[in-house]
Design brief:
The complex is a heterotetramer, with two copies of chain A (252 residues) and two copies of chain B (280 residues). Chain A has a domain of 117 residues. Helix content of chain A is 28%, strand content 20%. Chain A contains seven helices and twelve strands. The two termini of chain A are 30 Å apart. Chain B contains ten helices and 14 strands. The longest helix of chain B is centred in the middle third of the chain and has 13 residues. The chains are: A alpha/beta (252), B alpha/beta (280). Chains A and B meet through α3, β7 and α4 of A and β5, α4, α5, α6 and α7 of B.
Chain lengths: 252, 280, 280, 252
């Protein structure tokens, strides 16, 4: 995925998971939706690094890492109670205002492209304090000046109840943070350049004078992902786990 | 007296087609998300019968079931927060119908569907929900209203009208001969049944004894009182999975995704995997 | 890895007094109705500790528990739809406090309490409820509002503000070492826990293994995620019953009704049946 | 309870249950609250008489005759769905407008007598089509011109959502029906008189020229109560069942 000439002892997925784990930090509860192996790796890594059973990690696709017993609504009720601190969203389009589009491009009544739909984003984006946007494809097709359909807006008027929203956008090229209603380039992944990010981003963003390289995973982080996280992940993402972390080992 | 509580509405387990009789053309039909027990055998039976103009509510999302019904021309309106085949890619017939305008789509978001069905469950005309304000989901739903929270101060909040489906349809691990259905953790199935005028269930198997008489089983049981018809359909969620019972059939879903990518391939899929079972 | 899902909030089973530490003076405390698992051992421990000025919410009614707490001077405000000893007659200390004005009573009706806690569970500021209009229950609740149903036409409806208890306290048949609690059919216990900032549970016994790992048991389980402290209290509902486990102690409740009929008799009851257990 | 000189082959409780069973008729679902053995007898009798498993009977105090698995709220949700056709309410006071008082007498802030509270009446009275009021004590203390506290009103303004309300009041002396916002004396129990009813009723009611005697239970109704209903009732009301119907027999 990365065009890199640097010799590395980690895979792209490990770098991304490591970056996201740092964004998660010391949360109480991270929930990860379906088909999100890298955020799931990140959440389990954050937990392994904190070493105090924090954060609690809910993998919604899992039976084991999923405590919900009150039906499909419990995730949303739980978020409404303020008990979900970190969630991940993506978008067919993401714009510079942090708006995400999971519905369609073109005219809503006659869409050019139809995406699956908004899922829970039109609610969770407002009530989960730390929403991390994750979209590996970093292109002018996905990162646009303005989305064609707002599944959920990046910011709201001051009088709109909102206890959550986007804090960062992680792509295959870089990390943006989100503050004051705009993205700011926080770091560029090893093997990528600021110029490349500018060229492939459809929206305006704040550009610091110096943009650091995304820190690479420490040997300890790599060890935790491979030895502690991978066996837990295998239940939900067997193919991803085998491909990224090698053949399954027995669970810790 | 094993069925002390059985209601006269319940009739003993029926043939699949008999059980589905209440689903007429234009029925407002609510069905569950992929992990909650998707009645795929029943869905194929409905397609064979040629049901038309359904108002399909997928609580809160759908995958193969909505795609099949849409592709087979059974759906007039789809109300859901997403349709996708997940790791098998986009739902091709849904995408085709959405872009061609063949179906009307009422886009929503997961908790809004849950809340609107809970409103019907509770007999109230609406439920409030946070979020949504400033989204285009709200903008295109002129059946929703924004009011000022009367307990707040300049605090707009969305009100969602109750959804009253005519029929709730789902697949569950087991039912007993009294008509009680074990739904386990999938509590939204109870809400669906409470909200709908009639509930039709397919099950893997019959349970001997009365589910309500064992406190442990009763905790996960939808009482017969809410259930109008039950049919036994072994592996009735196939090719989807039934959690804790069987996995989804990945090979078949890959095949479906490939075949349904074109209208012609989808027609061949129906011939092979839906209509061939007409005699079953 | 038997407790994969355990949250760090959960600490292994504690002594009863340790488990109750979060219930300070003036706590807003929600407790369940008689058949849903009344934490009587915990109630006696709170009285021994001398907790004061509770805002007690009995969901939706109470019997001995509220009467004892009121008689012992622990309650400032009581919010419930009824307090009675059922077939053992009126709740004497409740009646005495109500007529003397010793406590403030927020009269309500069962579904209003359920709805207000479900509002907190769902993170919405209010819930609508039918009924109530024209009643004096509504007239004396100036925290409730009547609005016109925006989906109707000249259709007044009551809105109830969410109730956010500080602590939910109840008794249940069993918990596991991960902190999961089996609540069975008593789903309002889950709502209480979801709505409250902290949840404290007493249980009859510890269950070996993880309740969430067995799909049948999981269906009736409140996850550890919502549970802050658990203490084992065998026959912890005594002299009330725990359905499916033991019957209420009719002889003792008759005795209570007789003794609590006077302030002096109630004081003797406390001495004999509450304080004597201080050392326990 | 009844001052009767007539020789009878039934007990007062059997007459009352029989009367109430006739009021229930062919409903789909009758729910009976706690501490209501006579209404419970009536509901089970109606079911035994209909012979077609109708009505479904929910005895809220029972485990066997109680299907609810969604917690304490399910009764009210079920009523809100229109799935409860008949319910029973009582009152510390009941007035001629059908208002019931389950809260207190005197000034609400400084009550003279405090009753337990309104329970679910402030809701169920509005949404259960057939509410049968049942109060054995028929006196000017209980049947008053106007209740001191309205737990639930007998009637509502036309614009108030109301799909239910009182249809009758059964006492130890007589049966009133309720229509047009007033009670009407429908029958007087054997051994009682119209004059006695007037004397002991605190509210005005409509008085037909001829008031029939309350029909007595047929031999078949008595047989059903004693042979079919009693064994079912014994689970919930063992003392009542033993006293009224004699020693327990094995369940049907």
């Amino acid at each position: 995925m990365f065009m890199s000439a640097v010799r590395r002892d980690f895979r792209d997925e490990e770098l991304l998971a490591d970056v996201i784990a740092r964004l998660i930090g010391d949360a109480r509860h991270v929930a990860v939706g379906n088909a999100s192996p890298i955020p799931a790796t990140a959440a389990l890594l954050a937990r392994a690094q904190n070493g105090n059973m924090r954060p609690h990690v809910s993998l919604l696709q899992s039976r084991r890492h999923n405590f919900f017993t009150d039906g499909a609504r419990e995730l949303f009720d739980c978020a409404g109670q303020g008990r979900i601190d970190v969630f991940f969203l993506s978008g067919g389009q993401i714009d510079g205002y942090g708006n995400i589009n999971l519905v369609s491009t073109g005219d809503y009544a006659h869409p050019a492209v139809r995406f699956p739909g908004s899922f829970g984003s039109s609610y969770l984006y407002y009530v989960v304090p730390k929403v991390i946007l994750f979209r590996t494809e970093h292109s002018r097709r996905t990162l646009v000046p303005q989305v064609d359909f707002v599944s959920a807006p990046g910011t709201s008027e001051r009088n709109v109840y909102r206890t959550g929203g986007p804090v960062a956008l992680v792509t295959n090229r870089c990390v943006f943070t989100f503050t004051g209603g705009r993205f700011r380039l926080a770091s560029v992944h090893p093997g990528h350049t600021v110029e490349e990010v500018i060229e492939n981003t459809g929206f305006d963003f704040d550009l610091p004078d110096a943009v650091p390289a995304t820190p690479t995973p420490t040997p300890e982080a790599l060890r935790l992902m491979r030895e502690v996280v991978a066996p837990q992940l295998a239940e939900v993402y067997p193919r991803f786990t085998a491909e990224v972390f090698g053949p399954p080992q027995s669970a810790a | 007296m094993p069925c002390a509580n059985v209601t006269i509405m319940f009739q003993a387990a029926k043939s699949l087609d008999e059980a589905l009789a209440a689903i007429d053309d234009a029925t407002t039909l609510v069905v569950p998300r992929e992990v909650s027990g998707v009645p795929m055998a029943a869905t194929r039976a409905l397609i064979r019968r040629g049901v038309k103009n359904l108002h399909l509510i997928a609580l809160p999302t759908s995958s193969l079931q909505a795609d099949l019904l849409i592709g087979a021309g059974c759906v007039a309106t789809l109300e859901t927060s997403a349709v996708s085949l997940g790791e098998f890619g986009p739902a091709p017939r849904f995408v085709a119908a959405a872009t061609s305008g063949a179906i009307r789509i009422k886009d929503t978001t997961c908790p809004a569907l849950h809340a609107a069905l809970q409103a019907a469950e509770k007999g109230v005309p609406f439920m409030p929900l946070r979020g949504l304000i400033g989204s285009d989901v709200l903008k295109y739903r002129n059946d929703w209203k924004v009011v000022n929270n009367p307990f707040g101060n300049d605090d707009p909040i969305v009100l969602l009208p109750a959804i009253h489906p005519k029929v709730a349809l789902f697949h569950a691990p087991m039912a007993d001969r009294c008509g009680n259905v074990w739904i386990g953790r999938q509590r939204e199935l109870a809400t669906m049944a409470h909200a709908a005028a009639a509930t039709i269930v397919t099950v893997e198997r019959l349970h001997d004894g009365n589910l309500l008489e064992d406190p442990i089983l009763a905790a996960g049981t939808l009482p017969a009182f809410y259930v109008d018809a039950i049919a036994i359909a072994e592996r009735g969620a196939w090719p989807l999975g039934l959690p804790d019972h069987y996995e989804l059939d990945a090979e078949h879903l890959s095949l479906y995704a490939r075949m349904a990518a074109s209208a012609q391939g989808f027609a061949e899929y129906l011939d092979k995997y839906v209509y061939e079972r007409r005699a079953a």
